[in-house]
Amino acid sequence: MPVTLAPEGEARFRRIDMPWLRGIQRLLLMAIPVVSLLFAFDVPSRMGAAVLQEQFLGVVLILVLTSTFISMPAGARSSRRKVPWYDVVLSLLSLVVGGYLVIYYPRIVNEIGELTLDKVILGWLAIVLAMEACRRMTGWVLLIIAAVFILYAHYSYLFPGMLNARGISWSKIAVHLYIDPNSLLGIPLTIVATIVVAYILFGQVLFATGGGEFFTDIATSLLGRFRGGAAKMSLVSSALFGTISGSPVANVVMTGTISIPLMKRTGYKPHVAGAVESVASTGGQLMPPVMGAAAFVMAEFLGMPYAQVALAALLPALLYYVALFVQVDLEAGKTGITRVPEEQIPPLGAVLKKGWIFVFPIGIIVYFLFFLNLEAAKAAYYAAALTIPVSFLRKENRITFKKLLTVLEGTGQAMLEVAVVCAVAGIVIGVLTITGLAFIFTLLVDMMGAANIIVILALTGIVALILGMGMPTTAVYVVVALTLAPALAKLGISPLAAHMFVFYYAMLSMITPPVCIASFAGAALAGASPMRTGYASMRLGIIAYLVPFIFVFDPLLLFQGPAHLVLLAAATAFAGTVIIGIAMAGYFVRPIGWILRIVLALSGIGLLIPPGGAIAHSWLANAIGAAVSALFIVLEWRGRKAVAAA
Asked: Residue ranges per domain, the chain?
């Protein structure tokens, strides 16, 4: 789930003129992955130093916050060449709040209930610093949400009904959010500092050896000769890129600079080209073996191995890309779009000969995670370490010492956004635990009753989409999962399905208007209307809006159930996905009218329902869907022959 450095990402950060300060900036960024690696392999204890997890997180806070204030300007008008005095002050204060945890946490553990003045002052300082760092990285939305939660914790006595409670003192709020292991130092920051950083490092190593170019070349070589080959190339390369990149926008920028102009040249409309790249790039968060950061947090919340979460996500992710593939193919057939020009298609043999080494690290990740059941972080570190000597097999791919330092710096820089987001998400979690607000949300949903479960799911999805207008997927997932996923589970929904539902809709905010960041990035590269690109993205990604409602009621699509029913569900789901793709494209062998498209879409949804599972009348839905779909295909082929004969 790594976030790779994209050109647009680099432009956000300062390139400091002063050599000594630039050196400090680089050292701080490089220290982030190094410290995390040492902790992952328990190096301090092997050297006789007992380090608590909270002390380690204190070091991470120091590095992340100081790096953020040095590297990220406070606003659009702030200098990108010099560090102003107030950012130096904020960096020093970050050193103080993190250093306090590092030095005194063993003592704090024994007096965690005491509200001493130093804890109160440093607590508020830590909260303000984390929220300001988050504002610089992602904007105001998450900051406002966290502030609202903190205000509720103190002023809850003013709220009516179930939300009414005894207000908590400002001092207790500050100390709890600062030092409690369920708050700022909680699960989200822990996952980022131990697991996510490892996969960012792995992705940086892979791209430093030329992996991005290989993924694009292999997709072009395999699919460039087919109709709509440019779009299919974009789809496959973005999916491959997505297995080692958790940022849809970075994915769009990295692969879209090549694929979008190529799609436009071969005949795709600009808004469609931008939408194809946006949807394909966003789906990378869903694609195993390495998914988005939220998937690692989900595994921790559910108390299950990450490999189990990735396996559950596999079939829905494949359906997502099948629906996209069908639509781009039919779009090409409808508008007469042909293949990629021959001179732009690299020979497959030459691509494999040059880039076979990139298959090795992905295979290592899969083997370590799914066969050896190795810890997720160690699997990524081992894969990254093994990639380095393999890179020496080809001179142009070698990871030299200088390139390794650049990789470490890039890893630290890519860590900043996800780390500050998860730190503030931890603050929200802290308020939920100290106020019992999570239990109240669960009780409110439970009172609505199972009879309204579809309404509850729809509201959950809408909340995730709205929050996603201003927050990254991980932050949206954490907030909604903690407040609403337990309530869904209490209604009888599988906890894995409930959390996966939230994850899907948090991800879909990237391509759902009115604010859809990935689609906007694709539109900018395509020179198209952002809103038109966003609506095209929704159409192309339609299956991701439907499948979560299916697996919530029947988790067979998540590989939860008997093997024969899972296989049958997969077969009918793939058929239904193809039919829905035809309905969305409005074309099969000839254009299709709106009434028939609606009938086809309903038939496809009927096939999506797993037969023989928990959903009532599933066999009947599948039978009707199959009959209508088969009749449509037969009539369309006959109609095509009749037109050709005439």
From this structure: 1-560, 565-646
